[in-house]
Design goal:
With about 650 residues, the chain is mainly alpha-helical. It has 25 helices and eight strands. The chain has a two-stranded antiparallel ribbon. It has a two-stranded antiparallel sheet with strand order 3-4. A two-stranded antiparallel ribbon has the order 5-8. Strand 6 and strand 7 form a beta hairpin. Helix 21 crosses helix 24. The longest helix is centred in the first third of the chain and has 31 residues. It is globular and about 70 Å long.
Length: about 650
C-alpha cells in the first residue's frame, strides 16, 4: 500500500504538467476553434528560457541573446513572458489568417508551428537534458507513513489554484464571458462590442503563459528535454477531450487521474508477475485509449464554432491518363540512378521511397480529406514485420514485402476506425496519439524490438541480387532500379484508382459527407478502404526504408520524422500525384536535402526548421503547394501561347 501511495504522489508532478497543457488547449479552442498540438512546444520554449536564465543569466532570443541576470523573480517573469509572446505571435502571424479556414489547414499549421519550435529549441538550447531549479519548497514530508517530496504536492496545489482562477475568469470576467460567446460565433462577440482578434489574442497569451508557468514548475521534478513536453501534448489532448474542451474542472481532475494511472503502471512493471511485453511504452497507450473512448462516447457532442470550416479545402488535381508522361518520368528516374553514385545515388533512392510515402498522404488526406499523422508509424510497422519475416522466418523478398504491407494495412484500419465517428482535427488527434503509442509500445519495446536492432535479409528475385550494398559500393544499381519500378507501379496504380469510380467516391466524401451519404455512398466502407490502401502504400515505403538501411531502429520511424514528412507533403502539394514526387525530392535525406547540405552546409535540423516555417506559409498563402503553383504557372503560360496563336493578324501586317 505504501508503494502504491508513493507512486501516486510521484505522478502529481506529471499530472500538473498535463493539466497545464490541457487547460491551454481548452482556452485556445474556446476562443479560436484551433486544437493546438503545439501547446507543449510553446511551454517548453519558456521552460528552456527559464533554465538558461538561471544558468547563465542570458535571455535566449531566436537570434542572439541578451544578458539580464539570473535572479529567480526576473527569470520567472521573463520566461512566462516569453511563452506569452510566443503564443501571441502564433496568433498574429499564423492562426489569425486561418480564422475561417478548414480543419485541415488549422491542424497542418499547428503541426508546422510544433516542428518549428521543436527544432528551434534544439538549435538554440541543445539536445542535453536540463536540470531546472525548483520554485516551490521541496523537502521530505510524511504522508500516511510514506516519505515524499513536498514539491510535487505544491505543484498539484498550484495547478488546482490556477484552474480555479481560470474557471472564475471564464465565469465572471467580462473578457472571459465574451470569449465564451465567441466560442459559438465571432458574430456574437462583435455584437457585444468585442473584437474577435482581441479575444483570440488574449486567449493565446493566457494559455501560453499558464502552460509555460506550470511546465517551469513541473520540470524541476520531471526534467527538461527538447522532446518530452512537446509530446506531453498527447496525454494533454486526452485530458482535454475528457473535459469535452469545455470544463476546466473536469480537465484538472482527469489530468491527475491519467498521470496517476501511468505512474501506477510504472510500479506494476517491477513486479515479478508482470509480463515482459507490457514494457514502459504501455503507459503511452493509455492516452490513446482515453482519446478514442472520449471521442466515441462524446464525439458527436463536442463543441464546435458556428463559423468553422467556412472555406473550401485545397483544390484537387485528378490525374490524367498520359502514358508519355509516365515513360518520360521513368526515363528521367533511370537516368538519375545511373548517372549518380555514392551519397547522391542514395539521396535519389531515398527521394523515390519518400515519394511512395507521399502517395499515401495524397490518397488519404488529399483525396478523402482524412487527416492522418501516423503514416510513418504504419510504415514502421511494416518495416519491423519485414525484419521478423525475412530474418526470423526466412520468407523470400516478394511475399515478405507483400505480407508486411498487409500488416501495415491492418494496423491502419484499426487506427482509422475512429474516422467512422469523427473527422477533421479530432481525427488528427487520434492518429497523433496512435503514432506515439505505436512508437513507444512497439518500436521502443525491448521485448518486441531488440536494442541491438532489427536486421533485414537482403532481397533477391529470380536469382537477381537486389541488395543495396556490396563491399564499398554504397548503393547498387539493381536495388535502385527495383525501387524505381515499385514507385512507377504504385504511381500508375494510384493514378488509375483516383481517376476511376473509386476516386470519384473519395472526392464526394471529401467534399460533403452528408451529401455523399444521401446519394448512397457508404461512408464507413469508403473511409476504411482509404485508410487500408494508404496504409498499404506507406507499408511498402517502410519496407524499402528497411532494405535501404539493412536494419531498423526506433529513430527510423520517430513521430517527429512523420510530422516532418507531412510538412513536406503538404508543402509540395498534398492534392496531386506530382506533389508526392516533389515531396520525395524535398524530404529529409532526399535529393534536395543532400544537395543543399553539400553546397550550403545546411544541416538536417535547419532543413526541418525550413520545412516547418514553409509549411505555415504554404497553408496561409498557397494551400495547393508547390505542385499547384507550378500547374497554375504552366496554365498561364499555355494560355498566353494559345492566345497569341489565335489572335487575328491585322490587315496592315498582311
Amino acid at each position: 500500500m505504501s508503494s502504491f501511495l508513493l507512486f501516486l504522489i510521484v505522478g502529481l508532478g506529471t499530472g500538473a504538467a498535463y493539466v497545464a497543457l490541457a487547460q491551454g488547449v481548452v482556452v485556445v479552442y474556446k476562443a479560436t476553434g484551433v486544437i493546438n498540438v503545439a501547446q507543449g512546444a510553446i511551454a517548453a520554449w519558456g521552460a528552456f528560457t527559464f533554465a538558461e536564465l538561471r544558468k547563465s543569466g542570458d535571455l535566449v532570443l531566436p537570434v542572439g541573446r541578451v544578458h539580464v541576470g539570473s535572479a529567480m523573480g526576473t527569470s520567472v517573469l521573463l520566461a512566462v513572458g516569453v511563452s506569452a509572446v510566443t503564443g501571441l505571435l502564433a496568433h498574429v502571424l499564423v492562426f489569425r489568417q486561418l480564422r475561417s479556414a478548414p480543419a485541415l489547414a488549422k491542424v497542418v499549421a499547428s503541426v508546422g508551428l510544433m516542428l518549428t519550435l521543436q527544432v528551434a529549441t534544439l538549435l538554440r538550447f541543445g539536445e542535453d537534458s536540463r536540470a531546472v531549479d525548483a520554485l516551490l519548497p521541496n523537502r521530505l514530508v510524511v504522508v500516511s507513513g510514506v516519505a515524499v517530496s513536498s514539491g510535487r504536492l505544491y505543484m498539484a496545489g498550484t495547478a488546482v489554484v490556477l484552474t480555479v482562477l481560470l474557471w472564475a475568469y471564464f465565469r465572471f470576467s467580462r473578457l472571459g464571458l465574451a470569449t465564451r460567446a465567441a466560442a459559438e460565433s465571432d458574430v456574437h462577440a462583435s455584437l457585444s462590442g468585442y473584437s474577435p482578434d482581441l479575444l483570440a489574442g488574449s486567449a493565446w497569451v493566457l494559455s501560453s503563459a499558464f502552460s509555460g508557468l506550470m511546465v517551469i514548475l513541473a520540470s524541476s521534478a520531471t526534467g527538461l528535454t527538447a522532446s518530452n513536453y512537446i509530446f506531453y501534448i498527447v496525454p494533454a489532448l486526452a485530458v482535454a477531450l475528457v473535459g469535452r474542451l469545455r470544463s476546466v474542472g473536469l480537465v484538472c481532475v482527469a489530468g491527475f487521474v491519467l498521470a496517476g494511472i501511468q505512474s501506477e503502471l510504472s510500479l506494476l512493471r517491477i513486479k515479478p508477475w508482470w509480463p515482459d511485453w507490457a514494457g514502459p511504452g504501455l503507459a503511452d497507450v493509455v492516452p490513446f485509449v482515453v482519446i478514442v473512448v472520449s471521442l466515441f462516447v462524446a464525439g458527436r457532442s463536442l463543441p464546435s464554432r458556428g463559423d468553422e470550416d467556412a472555406d473550401r479545402l485545397p483544390e484537387v488535381h485528378r490525374p490524367a491518363n498520359r502514358p508519355r508522361v509516365v515513360v518520360v518520368a521513368t526515363a528521367v528516374g533511370l537516368l538519375a540512378v545511373v548517372a549518380t553514385q555514392g551519397s547522391f545515388r542514395f539521396a535519389v533512392v531515398t527521394s523515390m521511397i519518400m515519394a511512395i510515402l507521399g502517395l499515401s498522404y495524397v490518397l488519404l488526406t488529399g483525396f478523402v480529406g482524412q487527416i492522418s499523422l501516423a503514416q510513418l508509424a504504419f510504415a514502421g510497422a511494416a518495416g519491423f514485420t519485414l525484419s521478423r519475416l525475412t530474418s526470423g522466418a526466412g520468407v523470400p523478398f516478394a511475399p515478405a514485402i507483400l505480407l508486411a504491407g498487409l500488416a501495415a494495412m491492418v494496423l491502419g484500419v484499426l487506427v482509422g476506425i475512429p474516422a467512422l465517428r469523427i473527422r477533421g482535427a479530432q481525427l488528427a488527434v487520434v492518429t497523433l496519439a496512435g503514432a506515439v503509442a505505436i512508437e513507444q509500445f512497439v518500436f521502443s519495446n525491448p521485448s518486441l524490438s531488440p536494442p541491438t536492432g532489427n536486421p533485414i535479409t537482403d532481397p533477391s528475385l529470380f536469382g537477381i541480387d537486389l541488395a543495396i550494398r556490396r563491399g564499398a559500393e554504397l548503393v547498387r544499381l539493381p536495388f535502385a532500379v527495383m525501387v524505381l519500378v515499385l514507385l512507377v507501379v504504385l504511381t500508375v496504380a494510384v493514378g488509375n484508382l483516383l481517376r476511376g469510380h473509386t476516386g470519384r467516391v473519395f472526392l464526394a466524401v471529401r467534399s460533403n459527407e452528408r451529401a455523399a451519404a444521401a446519394v448512397g455512398i457508404d461512408l464507413a466502407v469508403t473511409k476504411l478502404i482509404a485508410f487500408a490502401l494508404s496504409s498499404f502504400i506507406a507499408g511498402i515505403g517502410g519496407c524499402l526504408i528497411g532494405y535501404s538501411r539493412g536494419q531498423l531502429s526506433t529513430a527510423s520511424f520517430a513521430v517527429i520524422s512523420g510530422l516532418a514528412l507531412l510538412a513536406v507533403a503538404y508543402l509540395s502539394g498534398i492534392t496531386s500525384i506530382s506533389g508526392a514526387m516533389i515531396a520525395g525530392l524535398s524530404a529529409p535525406l532526399g535529393l534536395a536535402n543532400v544537395f543543399f547540405d553539400r553546397v550550403f552546409h545546411l544541416r538536417g535540423d535547419w532543413w526541418l526548421l525550413l520545412s516547418g516555417v514553409g509549411l505555415m506559409i504554404t497553408v496561409i498563402l498557397n494551400p495547393q503547394g508547390i505542385a499547384g503553383q507550378v500547374r497554375e504557372a504552366n496554365g498561364r503560360l499555355l494560355g498566353k501561347i494559345k492566345a497569341r496563336r489565335t489572335t487575328p493578324v491585322p490587315e496592315v501586317a498582311r
